[in-house]
Amino acid sequence: MKTKTSKYSRRDFLKVATQSSAAMLITGCVSPASEEIQSTKTKTLQPVTTTAKPTIKMTENIPIQQVEREATPSPNLEEKIGQMIMVGFRGLEVNSKVIEDIRKRHVGGILLFDYDTPSKNPERNIKSPLQVRRLTKALQSYSDTPLLISIDYEGGKVNRLKKKYGFPTTVSQQYLGNKNNLAFTRKKATQMAKTLSDIGINLNFAPVVDVNTNPNNPIIGKIGRSFSSNPNIVSKHAIEFIKAHRRHKILCALKHFPGHGSSAADSHLGIADVSDTWSNIELQPFENIIKAGQADSIMTAHVFNNRLDPKWPATLSKSTISGLLRTKLGHTGVVFSDDMQMRAIANEYGLETAVKKAIEAGVDILVIGNNIGHFDPDIAKKVTKIIKENISEQRIDESYQRIMALKGKII
User: Fold this and answer.
1) Which domain holds residue 149?
2) What phi and psi, each to the nearest 5 degrees, are found at residue 36?
3) What separation in angstroms does the CA of 192 have from each of 47, 213, 247, 354?
4) Is 331 known to be catalytic?
5) d(C-alpha 224, C-alpha 407), whole Å
6) Which of 33, 86, 106, 189 has its CB 3.0 to 4.6 Å from that of 244, i.e. a possible disulfide?
7) Within a domain: residue 287?
8) Closest alpha carbon to 240 in 211, 209, 213
9) What is the pTM of this model?
10) Do the beta carbons of residue 238 and residue 207 sit within 8 Å?
11) Catalytic one among 338, 339, 364, 397?
């Protein structure tokens, strides 16, 4: 597919955009930008229903090219808000709805799944390596700002890129931790990172750095997602996993802060209260990896812990995210929410309250997979409206600056 090049590359855009946001924060000048990010394609964009799908001719041996767009340095408020939203969609190919979310709402991230839970359809976004490669390239072609295209690719049971679709076999983190051979972990993680690189996925929601303090935990220990009950083993193997991904320019997100390993409940299904089971050793892997400079980003847990916050679960807790994670542990990078449609959040708080409290707490990117409960085709539109009406531009700028810095690592 041919793309138009211009005086601004995507790398230039990220560099200038981040500097622009930083300057606004330093001077305290928080006013809507007068210039919008627009490409030639954007200026002539027709209504979404008539947007033509790009023709993509490719073989598995053709590298994914960096797409360059004409861009002015100053994004407007809507563009900054869009970067704070990551959504899932239905389709093995791009469709008018996801194009609308990318072009009109400027969503900054896409989350891919292999199975559609609401409809119980075994087909969602993943069918084969070549199909995914074509899909990610098409998604990127519609975005003026590089998209974070993400997936849960931990290995073992939590693995969207299964062997039946033509992807390499993986092993669980528990298997790696039990083997406790860092060279072997590096080898398996390198294979995974190369797989992601080959198909155009640039963000892996992994590794899990939860300490396996409860082997009977239905969502961590029982399905082999934790490296170990020893926080030092967790830390060492997680760092090897991250380094392997970095060598292939794949970002990682540590999960689930401040620790989900001790829970007796699944936060996908409802409240997971760890007040009586959580311990400080669950913070050690996060602290170790942050100190080692290997924490690209961190994902929150929808767990309630009254020792950290007597009212709010971690994702919505300012004392947990801004206080403990950022101030005490020193994480300066992006914070992702876990999926905001998980029942621990969706059943207990309205969408507006959840979105508002998460961002106020310190979350930078709201993850909305649209793959739990029911599928909402207008979820990005709703979340954009909530952010615009409830969050200050200064707070939006803080997240925007961190997001642009994260994207700059892989462009």
Assistant:
1) 79-396
2) -105, 150
3) 39, 27, 12, 33
4) no
5) 30
6) 189
7) yes
8) 209
9) 0.84
10) yes
11) 338
211-235 pLDDT, tens per residue? 999 999 999 999 999 999 999 999 9
Mean pLDDT for the chain overall: 86
In the predicted model, what is the mean pLDDT of residues 24-34?
A: 35
Given pLDDT bands bounded at 50, 70 and 90, which one contains residue 265? confident
Compute CA distances 410 → 8, 39, 106, 356, 405, whole Å. Answer: 17, 21, 19, 29, 10
> 90 vs 265, which has greater pLDDT?
90
**Cα distance between residue 288 and residue 142, in whole Å:** 38
Q: How many helices (H) and strands (E) does the chain have?
A: 14, 12
Q: Is the pLDDT of residue 351 over 80?
A: yes
348 located within any domain: yes
pLDDT in tens, 2-16: 343 333 355 554 554
Please name the residues in contact with 133: beta carbons below 8 A apart, sequence gap of 6 or more. Answer: 58, 60, 64, 198, 199, 200
Report the distance separating Cα 155 and Cα 161, nearest Å: 9
Closest CA to 271 of 345, 356, 373, 354: 345
Contact present, 404 and 18 (Cβ < 8 Å): yes
With respect to residue 52, please indicate whether it lies within any of the assigned structural domains.
no
The answer to the question of residue 197 being in a domain is yes
* Mean pLDDT of the 245-274 span: 91
Check residue 223 and report its DSSP letter.
G
CA dist 201 and 98 (Å) reads 17
Q: How many domains does the chain have?
A: 1
Q: What tokens were used for 370?
A: 């649209």
In the numeric block, the tokens 């990318």 are attached to 102
Q: What is the CATH number of the domain that holds 297?
A: 3.20.20.300
pLDDT in tens, 75-120: 999 999 999 999 999 999 999 999 999 999 999 999 999 999 999 9
Which residues make Cβ contacts (< 8 Å) with residue 352, sequence separation at least 6? 386, 390
User: Quick one: tokens of 365?
Assistant: 């990117």
| Token duo for residue 144 | 């003026």
- Percent of the chain whose predicted confidence (pLDDT) is above 90: 77
Question: Is residue 245 flagged as an active site residue?
Answer: no
